[in-house]
Amino acid sequence: MSDIKKIPTPENIAGSMPEVFELIEELEKRFKQFQGYTLKESNLTTPQYFILNLLSVEDGRPLKELADELACTRATITGIVDTLEKKGLVNRNPNRSDRRSLLVKLTERGRALLQSTPDLEKSFGSCCDVLPPDEVRELNRLLKRLSNGLPF
Question: Max CA-CA distance within the chain?
Fold first, then answer.
């Protein structure tokens, strides 16, 4: 009777969906720790870094545009920009084409800090080279498929 194979069920299959979501959650925690570690010397949070980086690509952006790019509320962006302004890294200037809005611009100090800060995108390559490019593409495809399959 010991030769009888146990019928696989979702509970005993390695890689069940609950396990997949636990791994995604653990990966997110470790990823945030990695980002924090990478930015520690610059005294920047990850959202602050992303705002500075967006401004380095296209300076003088409205708060709404920054909020849309980072998928957060304008109130959240306002708080982050307030902190960056106190640090002397950005300024708010009137928007000549829309008097109701302000444009966020990098200061020279902000530009210099960003240039001396490790690029997170490049840092990913050094920490995550355990997957070859074809597996990264496949993982990306599968995660998008999983995300699109969620009901909300």
Answer: 82
Q: Shortest CA distance to 123 belongs to which of 39, 28, 25, 29?
A: 39
User: pLDDT for 97-133, tens place per residue?
Assistant: 888 889 999 999 999 999 888 777 777 666 677 888 8
- pTM check: above 0.85: no
Nearest alpha carbon to residue 37 among 102, 114, 123, 95: 123
Is the model's pLDDT at 15 over the cut of 80? no
Q: What is the pLDDT of residue 71?
A: 92
SS (H, E, C) the chain: CCCCCCCCCCCCCCCCHHHHHHHHHHHHHHHHHHHHHHHHHHCCCHHHHHHHHHHHHCCCEEHHHHHHHCCCCHHHHHHHHHHHHHCCCEEEEECCCCCCCEEEEECHHHHHHHHHCCCHHHHHHHHCCCCCHHHHHHHHHHHHHHHHHCCC
Q: Quick one: pLDDT at residue 36? A: 83
Domains of the chain in sequence order: 26-118 (1.10.10.10)
